[in-house]
Amino acid sequence: MTDLLDDEPGGDVREVRLAEALADRYLSYALSTIVSRSLPDVRDGLKPVHRRLLYAMRQLRLEPNAGFKKSARVVGDVIGQYHPHGDQAIYDALVRLAQTFALRYPLVDGQGNFGNIDGDNAAAMRYTEARLTEVAMTLLEGIDEDAVDFRATYDGEGQEPVVLPAAFPNLLANGAQGIAVGMATSIPPHNVEEICEAALHLIQHPDAAIETLVERMPGPDFPTGGILVEPRENIVEAYRTGRGSFRLRARWEREDLKGGTYQVVVTEVPYQVQKARLVEKIAELLANRKLPALADVRDESTDEVRLVLEPRSRNIAPRVLMESLFKQTDLEVRVGLNMNVLDCETTPRVMDLRQVLQAFLDHRHEVLVRRTRYRLAEIARRLEVLEGYLVAYLNLDEVIRIIREEDEPKVELMRRFELTEVQAEAILNMRLRALRKLEEMKIREEHAKLSEEQADLQALMADESRRWRIVGDQLKAIKKRFGKSEIIGRRRTHMGEVPADIDVPLEAVVEREPITVLCSAKGWIRAMKGHLQDTGDVKYKDGDRHRFAIHAQTTDKLLVFATNGRFYTLGADRLPGGRGFGEPLRLMIDLPNDQDIVTILVHKNGRKLLVAANDGRGFLVGEDDVVAQKKGGKQILTVSGKTEALLCRPVPEGADHLAVAGSNRKLLVFPLEELSEMAKGRGVILQRYKDAELKDAKAFRLEDGLTWPAGAGRTRTETDLRPWLGKRGQAGRLAPNGFPRSNTFGE
Questions:
Q1: What is the 3-state secondary structure (H, E, C) of 382-450?
Q2: What does the domain layout of the chain look like in residue ranges?
Q3: What is the pLDDT of residue 182?
Q4: Which of 105, 136, 520, 638 is the most buried (most CB within 10 A)?
Q5: Is 662 in contact with 734 (CB distance < 8 Å)?
Q6: pLDDT along the chain (747 residues), means of 10
Q7: Does the predicted model carry a pTM greater than 0.85?
Q8: β-pairing, 348-350 with 340-342?
């Protein structure tokens, strides 16, 4: 008892750093997720759960010409023998294999409710039934002929295939989706006829260029159709790198109605877009007046998709209507390509198109070699037996005597006729009826036939080029069997032209309404309905105050100029409403915290802007050139060190002079033509300073005079500006009496 107490409890106890223990265990979990759950094998295109489902269904003899069995039976067998995970997860995988809108070539033939394109779930597994399809049978073809390796199941009581023989190019044909730890895969489905064409070309030309393969396999082919509008060079680059995306649009057509009106009918929606949610999204945008060009949307679908879109006016062009919908709804999506798969050594890596096809072809070649070896072994065993039979026929009387009289006939037969144990056992197991002369003739015919087949297979094993021809013939058979079918073989996704840029008026996307844009001193922005003339009653957060008030329309673009010299572009329709305090503008446009807003303008095409920094440098820039396409803005005015952008003013039409005022109260007026127009840069010197900086600048027409505020709502206009006229870059003279103490020209 004392010895037991002296022993350290827990057995082998080791001290390990927590960080190391967590890292080791998380790495094990990550590898398990990658290899055993999330990524497909490049050879058969299946994840373990799908492979186990198909193998279990084959063991249940659920061939295409057999009857259906309850899905619950299939799921139960998979859990009990191969895949110890939740029944719902396995059933969901089974359901997807049967969905014609999810898989280009379904692997399971489902009977019952297996869900629909609207996103409705399948019925419970006790209500649905399933069996294998012809495509699934081609994946399993030869599995009993030592075509692939097997491994022990999770409980060690059975065997399961490591990979399927896969006569069908399933990875590219049906695609794959998966998210692992630190990596993911996304492979869209393709047309099997095109895949076979590309693979056959690769057999003939092992170093074929990606461009050549894409000529035969031009892009994905989705089960739900649609129109692929991605430029060809982008498609080639995606297949070359194994990463990219494809732009996919719904297919639509115009239906003319009475009175010159029309309606648009969507007949195919993009891949993996739930039709019901798509209709809900369009209806929501319609209710929120985000689609002014659209009057109504109806779902008239039966077995075929039919979404009816009614325009608000017959004067709206159908393409303009659809472009507005493509921009805001899932009628246009981007389908990702990330060919991250497990190679033949179960190592995850991103492959290009040629590598994926070559891996499939190498697997088919390996399957052919293994099946040939298996057949040769079978023939050798049968020939051994047949040769024993022939010995028995040649010595029939002696064989009968030995069997009748000898105590150990098997041993005596082996000694007397130099037979193997297999041959002796086969002779002893012969039936009496097999001793007929006719049976001897049949055996000789079978022996000759098998010997001929054996010689042919041995020649095949010695001729690699012939083996590759057979692999090619198998691909041609798959192509003929599945690629030429009118029902499943024809290409469903149309390869469309890249759509030309259509100038969609913002009025077709956003309803035009007057708003007042308010921005506080701390940069909180919001939009009030209507053009407010008095903003004194508008409330701000404690410690904040009013700064900008701009009259605009919901269809306008706003230009935000900041102290870093960058222009940011913001749609007025994106602004928060006026009920609260708004949202921080710097978060909406990625404005750094150490920068401030200089001004906010309503964008007008063709207008020129004057931009300047506090060091007295500036230039003119076309307003169309400052519109930013990214949230991070567009750099226009170059600033550095203590220099920062100070002002941005529109140049009035007809302006011919520029007035510049510095913090030293000196004023300079010079012709506007002396100021350079640039796309971006630091600019030129407007006014020269010593221990001062630029405060304001204003473009005006000389004959109209220079105007500035004079207090109490009054303005003053100075028409005689001769004392301050000069050349750009001069210091100027002191401003006239009455010039604002702020040294600015006001609005």
A1: HHHHHHHHHHHHHCHHHHHHHHHHCCCHHHHHHHHHCCCHHHHHHHHCCCHHHHCHHHHHHHHHHHHHH
A2: 46-162, 251-330, 372-482, 507-734
A3: 79
A4: 136
A5: no
A6: 51 81 78 78 94 96 95 95 92 96 95 94 96 96 94 92 96 92 90 96 95 96 95 95 95 91 95 95 88 90 93 85 90 95 91 96 97 96 92 87 89 90 89 74 91 95 95 94 72 88 60 86 89 82 88 89 92 83 88 90 92 93 90 89 89 93 93 91 92 92 90 84 92 90 84
A7: no
A8: antiparallel
State the residue for tokens 């900008």.
548
Question: Is the separation of the CB atoms in 81 and 56 below 8 Å?
Answer: yes
Q: Does domain 372-482 have CATH number 1.10.268.10?
A: yes
Are the CB atoms for 694 and 648 separated by under 8 Å?
no
CA distance 660 to 699: 9
Would you call 153 helix, strand, or coil by DSSP? coil
- pLDDT of 460: 95
Q: What is the pLDDT of residue 1?
A: 45
Find the angle CA(718)-CA(721)-CA(726) to the nearest 5 degrees: 150
Q: What share of the chain is helix, strand, coil (3-state, %, to 5)?
A: 35, 25, 40
Residue 600, classified by CB atoms within 10 Å of its CB into exposed (0-12), middle (13-18) or buried (19+), is buried
Distance in angstroms (rounded) separating the CA atoms of residues 150 and 335: 35
The Cα–Cα gap between 168 and 192 comes to: 8
Query: At a CB cut-off of 8 Å and minimum separation 6, what does 514 contact?
Result: 529, 530, 531, 551, 552, 553
β-bridge partners, 152: 159
Phi/psi at 11 (5° precision): 70, -135
User: CB neighbours of 575 closer than 8 A, spacing ≥ 6?
Assistant: 515, 517, 525, 526, 527, 582
Q: Annotated catalytic, 154?
A: no
CA-based nearest residue to 518, from 479, 544, 483: 544
| Residue 99 pLDDT | 95
pLDDT score recorded for residue 383: 94
Class at the top of the CATH hierarchy for domain 251-330: alpha beta
Q: Pick the catalytic residue: 127, 239, 262, 689?
A: 127
pLDDT of residue 377: 95
Residues sharing a CB contact under 8 Å with residue 549, sequence separation 6 or more, in sequence order: 516, 517, 518, 519, 532, 535
Query: Shortest CA distance to 330 belongs to which of 296, 354, 307?
Result: 307
pLDDT at residue 686, as a whole number: 93
Tokens describing residue 77: 């067998």
Quick check: helix, strand or coil at residue 655?
Answer: coil
Residue 660's φ and ψ, nearest 5 degrees, are -125, 135
Task: Tell me how far apart the alpha carbons of residues 46 and 417 are, in angstroms, rounded to a whole number.
Answer: 53
Question: Strand 494-495 to strand 227-228: parallel, antiparallel, or no bridges (unpaired)?
Answer: parallel
Are the CB atoms for 544 and 525 separated by under 8 Å? no
* pLDDT at position 510: 62
* Dist. CA 312–CA 322, nearest whole Å: 13
Burial class (CB in 10 A: 0-12, 13-18, 19+), 130: buried
**Long-range interactions of 316-322: CB distance < 8 A, separation 24+:** 316/508, 318/254, 318/262, 318/264, 319/502, 320/293, 320/502, 320/504, 320/505, 320/508, 321/264, 321/293, 321/294, 321/508, 322/252, 322/264
Tell which residue, 621, 591, 623, has the closest CA to residue 605. Answer: 623
Enter the DSSP assignment of 55. Answer: H
Domain boundaries 46-162, corresponding CATH code: 3.90.199.10
Cα–Cα distance measured from residue 243 to residue 350, given in angstroms and rounded to the nearest whole number = 8
The superfamily in CATH containing domain 507-734 is: DNA gyrase/topoisomerase IV, subunit A, C-terminal (2.120.10.90)
List 184's β-bridge partners, or say none: 179
- Quick one: which H or E segment has residue 365? helix 353-394
